Fold this sequence. Notes:
This protein is mainly α. 75% of the residues lie in helices and 0% in strands. It contains nine helices and no strands. α4 crosses α6, α4 packs antiparallel against α8 and α5 packs antiparallel against α7. It starts with 8 loop residues before the first helix and ends with a helix.
Amino acid sequence: MTSAVxxxxxxxxxxxxSWRRFAAPALFxxxxxxxxxxxxxLALLLFAAGxxxxxxxxxxxxxxxxxxxxIFVHVPAAxxxxxxxxxxxxxxxxxxxxxxRLSAMMARALAPTGALFTLLALWTGAFWGRPTWGAxxxxxxxxxxxxxxxxxxxxxxxxxxxxxxxxxxxxAGAVLALVGVVNVPVIYFSxxxxxxxxxxxxxxxxxxxxxxxxxxxxxxxCALGAWAYSGAVALRRLRAIVLERELNAAWVASLxxxxx
Length: 260
């Protein structure tokens, strides 16, 4: 009987340090370029498949008719608005605690995409609410907290852009992002905590989905496409921020010489 061979301590440290080395902007920059291209292609395929299933193949809802089909844009956008804020706050917090430059840059790169998805969730929710509720907007708990999320994204970006010193801007933005995290569970649990017009979650971990399999498949494909798109755009934006922050570094100068 043979026993499994575990990696030695030096080997484990070497594997760990091989990943940590990508925290250096010069090493992460080319990796981000390769990842963003792959994620863009994946996002295109997932969105195309999800929208085809949702808009063409999925059946008409017996209550809302075809108006429900906006769910294939609205729900992924709403999910990503919350997920990206948590990711932004996480990386901002890591940069604040450990003073890592790339973490703070990642937080800044995620903010515009999070704001875009929040705005998209609000607009598609309004278009969905008009035939469903008879109104474009109501001061519902979920809608109001989602609107507050948009203001938090905009406040984060405006605060950072108003401070000339990059390190001070990162610290100020991190504090605001971490404080705003309390709004995310309010958005998610608002339909349970208060009596609101907004319908409850369609997908729950504790019970089977209450929608047809084709609807669920289209929704999940679009959601995965939104994940891939968010990663691709954030990495592309991160590369631009890295070049801006590291403008005087020798490795950036070497990139300029190669491109000539």
